[in-house]
Design brief:
By secondary structure, the chain is of the alpha/beta class. Helix content is 32%, strand content 19%.
């Protein structure tokens, strides 16, 4: 009879704890690492020859939106393909519990995610089995009745808490009464008692850039500072959990302020006494002082004893999209208006002369939409079109088309899109590509990579490849990080920040969440479209090559990029499990 279930033999171990790499064997039994080294002559049911390969702890992703996808994809791809073995769901205050079992409440909860996180509605309708109401019931279902190929923790998302107590419409009309706020705090406590890791919220103000399906702000966008601090006091009282907060008041023009929001994070850290994830730290190559200021603020805050941590956007992938699906220009009122509705509705608004005039004026006045990592409309590259006679545009930027045709930037973009029935595929060409600036973010002891948004924006985002990017681009290819630093940032540090116990590292007694890969062969494959959503809808994905084995709780979930069928993932209640 074999002594062990698995022995990983002869691999170069990078343990996630900044220990210098070393070559040894690892024995696994009953889901745990039971011995490292000293295994000569030992027997196992399965021997994995890791000679010449890297053996590391599985990666931890603290910012995903897999709340729906877990019901039809136990491996949570893209994340599962890229070595992620533990994820956090319920980010930004969005989720599906608590939610009353009446059809209109369930429909409303799904509709809210169709624009804000761009999760296709029909995929949710066909893929989700609604058999819970309360957050504890949702956690019980997640724990016991949903197959999982990864481990999971969940925040208590505040949007469904507000809608449960006040109703969707009422929560947008007014602030809660003292009694309503007290009941919401009770629901957060109830969720924490059921095993939640903390609470989350997006608070971007009335001019939010990430909106509800009808173009209005999300419920939590309208939260006051007093409400935020009240929920912080709940965790202080419990003395557990952490907070994921996306905060930033926006002006009447819809563009987000940067500096004033920092004080709110500081007050929340003081009141709660708990770790807080600040999002997002990103490298703007044209204005590097922006991320440097945030890094300096994080350092000062931590020196004061405030547990404020940054999550960095650390991938080179641009966003490839059509205006049939696009929603990330919502900071601009005019762009928001033309990208709401059906395809025909959008086309009509894009051709409206008054709307065009407003959009040109907005552009000329310097109000130009686009996340930093996307770039402006003028820099969008035409990747593909739906008409053969438009092939002449492929490879050109919108700015180059405008110059060739003597048009305004806005007219060049919208004329092409409308004539192409909104099938033109644009690529944001300002993908983060400066390893110095991005490496500077991850060199900070207070920052981790991530913000994959896994499960969201599925028709134009592949940010879930960030672990592979961190290892290949920032460690192997540019040397901005050592492999030891990269794995510390991908595994131990996010596990620590998220309150995940006994994971994120390789040592005896730890659960065997392990990634074995070929450093030289590791890469992200080209972006592709796959039709694997419930109902046959499509999404854009980017897979990986070079991962030999990915293990969760001692069982192999992927071998050479292929799913094994094993579903050993756990819900880590209070970060344990």
């Amino acid at each position: 009879m074999a002594e062990y279930d698995v022995i990983i033999k002869g691999g170069t171990i990078i343990d996630g704890l900044l220990t210098p790499r070393y070559v040894s064997d690892i024995a696994i039994k009953d889901g745990n690492i039971v011995q490292i080294g000293g295994l000569r002559g030992s027997q196992a049911t399965k021997i994995l020859d890791a000679s010449g390969l890297i053996v590391s702890p599985g990666f931890v992703d603290l910012h995903t939106h897999y709340d729906a996808q877990i019901q039809w994809d136990p491996y949570l791809t893209l994340s599962g393909w890229h070595g992620v073995t533990s994820v956090a769901i319920g980010n930004c205050g969005f989720g599906f519990a608590p939610c009353r079992s009446v059809p209109e409440d369930r429909e409303r909860a799904m509709l809210a995610l169709t624009r804000n996180e761009a999760i296709p509605y029909e995929a949710m309708v066909q893929g989700m089995s609604w058999d819970w109401e309360t957050f504890p019931q949702f956690m019980e279902r997640l724990q016991n009745r949903i197959p999982k190929g990864v481990n999971m923790i969940s925040y208590v998302p505040l949007t469904p808490v507000y809608s449960w107590v006040m109703g969707w419409d009422e929560a947008k009309k007014r602030r809660p009464t003292a009694a309503e706020l007290e009941e919401m705090c009770r629901l957060v406590k109830e969720g924490m008692a059921a095993g939640a890791c903390g609470w989350s919220a997006q608070v971007l103000g009335p001019n939010s850039g990430q909106r509800d399906y009808d173009g209005t702000p999300m419920i939590t966008d309208l939260m006051t500072e007093e409400e935020i601090l009240t929920f912080g006091k709940v965790l202080a009282e419990l003395d557990e959990g952490f907070i994921q907060l996306t905060y930033g008041n926006t002006g009447e023009d819809g563009y987000r302020a940067i500096d004033p929001k920092l004080k709110v994070y500081e007050r929340l850290a003081e009141v709660s006494g708990r770790p807080i994830l600040y999002q997002v730290v990103e490298a703007d190559d044209t204005e590097p002082q922006k991320h440097q200021q945030v890094l300096s603020w994080l350092e000062r805050s931590n020196h004061r004893g405030l547990r404020l941590y940054g999550q960095g956007l650390t991938v080179r992938s641009g966003l490839e999209f059509t205006l049939q699906d696009w929603n990330l220009f919502d900071e601009s009122p005019s762009w928001r208006e033309i990208t709401i509705g059906s395809l025909e509705d959008r086309k009509l608004k894009m051709q409206d002369p008054d709307m065009r005039s407003r959009m040109r004026e907005e552009w000329d006045n310097g109000s130009r939409p686009g996340p930093n990592f996307l770039g402006s409309v003028a820099g969008l590259i035409v990747m593909a079109t739906g008409r053969r006679d438009f092939d002449r545009y492929v490879g050109l930027t919108v700015g180059e088309i405008a110059e060739q045709e003597g048009k305004h930037i806005i007219d060049a973009c919208l004329d092409l899109a409308v004539a192409d029935d909104l099938q033109t595929e644009f690529l944001g060409n300002k993908a983060i590509d400066n390893p110095g600036n991005t490496g500077e973010i991850l060199k900070s002891p207070y920052c981790i990579p991530g913000v994959s948004d896994g499960g969201a924006h599925v028709k134009f985002s592949v940010l879930g490849n960030f672990p592979t990017e961190t290892i290949t681009w920032l460690a192997r290819d540019t040397g901005m990080l050592s492999l030891e630093e990269a794995h510390y940032k991908l595994s131990y540090l996010p596990a620590f920040m998220g309150g995940i116990k006994d994971r994120g590292f390789i040592r005896e007694g730890a659960p065997a969440d392990i990634v074995v890969y070929d450093l030289e062969k590791l890469r992200s494959t080209p972006t592709e479209v796959v039709y694997d959503l419930p109902g046959g809808d499509w999404r854009r994905v980017q897979k990986a090559e070079g991962y030999r084995w990915i293990m969760v709780n001692g069982e192999t979930t992927f071998e050479d990029g292929k799913e094994t069928g094993a579903v050993p993932g756990k819900v880590l209640l209070h970060g344990r499990g």
